[in-house]
Design a protein that fits this description.
37% of the residues lie in helices and 14% in strands. The strands form 2 sheets. It has an 8-stranded parallel sheet.
Length: 325
């Protein structure tokens, strides 16, 4: 496993990180989930990403139990807030920031998280209110650093300028969706963040599993896949285009490219994401320990120019490049 610096922080994070959306504490049987976490550490993964909303606290509680016997300084722990935790608890207001960080720490059984992230931008709360509350969290020792997920470039710029002008804690990480099939952050978010000490922790680098090649055009999803599970509605929301026959056919053209490179499809997709210097880590969502090992072995892989050209010829025509809003 190789490691990269996370933005302007002093955090060294593994190139592959372990996420917990739709998996731990929710969709994966507990013993197997525990095995996945242990396998991640065995493979050198030191970065665990979660959020309060994953299973409405269940993912954090699961991780709190599994990690409690491990020396806290040996791993990097990140969580998030924004999405509804109840009918009244949501967003990034100062009261919510204070309430949700304390609740997350209780569930995670720790005194601090290394990275506290805004899961989305909150248009209903003044940015300065959010930034001051987050600064308070850091200065109280409840979080070491701050980040955000899926913020548009103009909001990122506002936050950068505000932190500098008011002496507030800056953001050091961005968590956008990014893969061979979803390239929206490349145009604006990556260069803006790179110029301001903000590293990228990308989610869905396997494009919801599409880039593993297991979903085939004209065929039903495999019975043991997430796309066939009861979470299908939320799983597909906003990503329906990934499962179109055009995209699935293009992905099948990657199979011989991966084979010739001596890589699995997942390793090829992860290595493509990690070719980007702006990316500090790619989050995987493994449901089996074998998947953790397979994904972890993408770390350190360098794709040659011929392989990169072949990938572009295969899927470049179906990749989406517009920025998220």
């Amino acid at each position: 496993m190789q490691y990269r610096q996370l933005g302007s922080s002093d955090l060294r994070v593994s190139e592959i990180s372990l996420g917990s959306w739709l998996t731990y504490g929710v969709g994966v049987e507990r013993d197997r989930a525990v095995q996945c976490v242990h396998r991640a550490f065995d493979e050198g993964i030191n970065f665990i990403d979660t959020a309060n909303v994953y299973g409405r606290g269940a993912a954090e509680s699961f991780l709190g139990e599994v990690l409690r016997g491990r020396e806290r300084s040996t791993y990097v722990l990140a969580t998030k807030l924004y999405f509804p935790m109840s009918d009244t608890d949501r967003g990034l207001s100062a009261p919510q920031v204070r309430k949700q960080i304390d609740a997350s720490l209780r569930r995670l059984r720790t005194d601090y998280v290394d990275l506290y992230q805004c899961h989305r931008y909150d248009a209903n709360t003044p940015l300065e209110e959010t930034m001051r509350a987050l600064t308070e969290v850091v200065r109280q020792g409840k979080a070491r650093y701050l980040g955000f997920s899926e913020w548009p470039a103009e909001r990122i710029r506002e936050a950068i300028d505000l932190a500098r002008a008011e002496g507030l804690e800056p953001f050091v990480s961005s968590q956008p969706q990014y893969s061979m099939l979803w390239r929206g952050p490349e145009t604006d978010v990556f260069p803006l963040c790179a110029a301001n000490g903000i590293g990228q922790i990308v989610w869905s680098p396997l494009a919801q599993g599409v880039l593993t090649g297991k979903y085939r055009p004209g065929e039903a999803p495999p019975a043991d896949s997430r796309a066939a599970s009861r979470e299908m509605g939320g799983f597909l929301q906003g990503n329906e285009a990934l499962f179109s026959d055009d995209v699935l056919s293009a992905v099948q053209r990657l199979v011989p490219i991966a084979r010739e490179a001596g890589l699995t499809m997942a390793q090829l997709a992860l290595a493509w994401v990690l070719r980007e210097p702006a990316v500090s880590s790619a989050i995987i969502g493994a449901s089996k320990p074998e998947q953790v090992s397979d994904n972890a072995r993408a770390s350190g892989v360098r794709l040659g120019e011929d392989v990169l050209r072949a990938i572009e010829e295969a899927v470049g025509g179906v990749a989406r490049t517009e920025a998220r809003v």
